[in-house]
Design a protein that fits this description.
This protein is mainly α. It is about 80% helix and about 0% strand. It has one domain. α1 crosses α2, α3 crosses α4 and α9 packs across α10. The longest helix is centred in the middle third of the chain and has 39 residues. The two termini are about 30 Å apart.
């Protein structure tokens, strides 16, 4: 997403907040003051979210060794190497940051929802609040699926492929990047049914339209499988595309009968 798109989206949210929670103003200066108040609230929420992330990242850095050991389990006991002076330190900070974001996610979600809710109607707020637990659960189920189901065969394939020709020497920075990227995007992909259900409740999509889009959704699932998986073999891509297709079908059922 480019900067222009972000600014445009922020402008829409601010406009909705002003239209729904700001009283009718009698002058242009008062309208501008209302917008400034919204921006001040946004700044306050961003500061609180940043401080929360900084604290949880610091705590995660203390336990980075245990997190490393957990992430290395799917690799089957290998000991990665680092070949640059700052590579290991960078890997430590990356692991601590990702873990800190996960720990701070309840606060981050609270700040985001607290700012966006006034821009929603009462019905939209009701659906959004009820779906918050499902969003969190879906993400962690996706991460668990990636860690326990997808990651072990993918890492095994990568380590064994061509091992009769060259001895694998896995860089810790590369390993952490591959693992965290895969787990994150699998977690995001598992949000598909909840997102479809929410859009259906807002009447932005319906079952008929989504059913007609099914064939394209299958193609997108295999494209995403090729992008998300760290390997090029079709077996591991199917491990991602298959669940994505099932998630889309589950979303269809939720939209139809929810």
């Amino acid at each position: 997403m480019n900067v222009l798109g972000v600014l445009r989206g922020a402008g829409v949210i601010l406009a909705n907040r002003q239209n729904r929670i700001a009283p009718e103003q009698g002058s242009e200066n008062e309208d501008k003051l209302t917008v400034l108040e919204h921006l001040a609230e946004l700044r306050t929420r961003l500061i609180r979210a940043t401080l929360a992330t900084a604290v949880t990242t610091g705590i995660s850095f203390v336990f980075a060794r245990q997190i490393f050991e957990f992430l290395l389990v799917p690799a089957g006991g290998i000991k990665p190497v680092f070949i640059e002076v700052t590579e290991m330190l960078g890997a430590y900070f990356k692991v601590a940051l990702y873990a800190g974001l996960i720990l701070a996610s309840p606060i981050l979600i609270y700040e985001i929802v607290g700012f966006v809710l006034p821009a929603m109607t009462r019905r939209e707020r009701s659906y959004a609040l009820r779906l918050l637990p499902a969003i969190a659960i879906s993400f962690f189920v996706g991460v668990a699926f990636g860690y326990y189901v997808l990651l072990p065969p993918a890492i095994k394939f990568l380590l064994n492929f061509g091992s009769e020709i060259a001895q694998p020497q896995i860089r810790i920075g590369n390993y952490i990047s591959v693992v965290t990227r895969l787990l994150f995007w699998i977690g995001i992909a598992f949000e598909t049914p909840v997102t479809m259900y929410f859009l259906g409740k807002l009447h932005l999509v319906n079952y008929q339209k989504l059913a007609r889009f099914r064939r394209y959704a299958y193609v997108v699932a295999f494209v995403l499988g090729a992008i998300i998986t760290p390997t090029f073999d079709p077996i591991n891509q199917l491990f991602v595309a298959g669940p994505l297709i099932l998630l889309y079908e589950l979303g269809l059922l939720l939209v139809r009968y929810g």
